[in-house]
Design goal:
There is one protein chain. By secondary structure, this protein is mainly alpha-helical. The protein has one domain: Fumarate reductase/succinate dehydrogenase, transmembrane subunit (3 helical TM bundles of succinate and fumarate reductases, Up-down Bundle), CATH 1.20.1300.10. It is 80% helix and 0% strand. The longest helix has 32 residues. The relative contact order is 0.13.
Length: 202
Amino acid sequence: MAGNREFFNRRLHSLLGVIPVGVFLIQHLVVNNFATRGADAFNSAAGFMGNLPFRIFLEIFIIYLPLLFHAIYGLYIAFTAKNNVSRYGFFRNWMFFLQRISGIITLIFLAWHVWQTRIQAAFGVAVDFNMMAEIFSSPAMIVFYLVGVISTIFHFSNGLWSFAVSWGLTTTPRSQQIASYVTIIIFIALSYVGISTIFAFV
């Protein structure tokens, strides 16, 4: 019975990391990248997202609750996982290890990012281009966001490989190797979007 529950929880954890959390990550990166087109473009895109119908409902049930489960159960996995990096050092073992480390970094980053943006917005602070530019006026914040964004994108991209395996989408060594290449390309592409966005505010 306990084994079935853990199997279900791991499947749910994997699924929520891709849908809806991963989908939201991509959408968030794309919307924020409007900053590369200037302040007006970013403010328009952010304003559109902020004025969506049922926004609070969507944020709670499509973002925060799935993310909360994924984060909490992810911490359980991270602290109970048996890593083989020091003994074997194979590529996938390193990816397994880095997935856990990046998950912890991502959780810290997201908590801070939500505080700086969504929580501040609840107190009436405008989440616009000027707000983000003020955040990135600090070199420490630039470094913090670079580490956080890259860690988050790595966690998602590498998690796609695990998702494909656990859900039976890649069952052969060849398909898993192809999936590795695909996820690396996704990581590079999304990292470019995220990094270019950060420096658009600088």
